UniProtKB/TrEMBL annotation:
InterPro entries in the cross-refs: Nucleotide-diphossugar_trans (IPR029044), StrF_dom (IPR059123)
Species for this entry: Knoellia remsis
One annotated GO molecular function: transferase activity
UniProt KW Transmembrane keyword: no
Keyword terms: Transferase
Name recorded for this polypeptide: GT2 family glycosyltransferase
Gene3D superfamilies: Spore Coat Polysaccharide Biosynthesis Protein SpsA, Chain A (3.90.550.10)
Domain Streptomycin biosynthesis protein StrF intervals: 43-181
Length: 261
């Protein structure tokens, strides 16, 4: 029998699942794959644990793909892009973007970033397209067989909608499983912010307490490089983008409209 994938989604009240996530899942899935939907009133850790509990009872389940309701697969190839790295039994979790060497509780707070994604800010390349990392962004979390069997999200301490991705990835690493970034054909139709700032800060405190050996402060020698990455490079990228737009506009104005019949 061919491997079965479970696509699991925490569906919010925005209605994005029907217009964004569902069309992408239908594009990527095979007929025998399963889709499990849950609402998020109890927090995303509890939701994802219920999805994992249901997936464990499905014969031949080789992967559980947990995605936000604002994530859309853009190609049937996405299924294979996720499943191939998980065929390695040493790999526990796969995602689209992530980081290694955490100094903060999110994947972006890592010394080395990896992956690429198209989101609110446009197409962004953070580093190598294929990489072994410590954590991946929760926009897409794909768990392999051992991770499905043995991992659980800490719903008792992370009760809302932040920090779950960092925690589950660090759990996987602690049990000897690899966490990998791979290219996946998708769009993240997000809002470009962290959402509930209070919940974000609460999750930050929880993660720093739970993982003090994995989330370590920057040394003085590391700070200039990280500062440049977070402040200088985005500004240069914005300038290049504006210059490209201006050049395109100028070219159009000098050439005139296309009059080809």
């Amino acid at each position: 029998m061919s491997p079965v994938i479970v696509f699991g989604c925490c569906v919010g009240p925005s209605g994005k699942y029907d217009t964004v996530a569902r069309p992408g899942i239908e594009l990527a899935r095979r007929h025998d794959d399963r889709v499990i939907l849950e609402t998020g009133v109890t927090g995303i850790c509890a939701v994802y644990n219920r999805i994992l509990d249901e997936a464990r009872a499905i014969p031949d389940c080789e992967a559980v793909v947990l995605l936000h309701d604002d994530v859309q697969f853009t190609s049937p190839a996405a299924r294979g892009q996720i499943l191939r790295p998980l065929s390695d039994p040493s790999v526990g979790i796969v995602g689209a973007v992530g980081g290694r060497g955490l100094f903060g509780p999110q994947w972006v707070g890592a010394r080395r970033l990896a992956g690429e994604v198209t989101d609110f800010y446009g197409h962004r390349r953070f580093g190598p397209r294929f990489a072994e990392v410590d954590v991946v962004d929760g926009l897409l979390l794909a768990l392999g067989p051992r991770a499905i069997r043995e991992l659980r999200f800490p719903e008792d301490v992370l009760t809302r909608f932040h920090g779950y991705d960092t925690d589950i990835c660090l759990q996987a690493r602690a049990m000897g499983l690899k966490v990998r970034v791979v290219p996946v054909d998708l769009l993240h139709r997000d809002k470009g912010n962290v959402g509930d700032a209070t919940a974000f800060e609460e999750s930050r405190s929880v993660l720093l307490r739970r993982w003090p050996d994995q989330i370590t402060p920057l040394r003085a020698s590391e700070r200039p490089r990280i500062w440049a990455r977070e402040h200088v490079r985005p500004r240069l990228g914005a300038l290049r983008h504006r210059a490209a737009v201006a050049t395109k506009s100028l070219r159009h104005s000098t050439q005139g409209p296309d009059r080809t019949p």
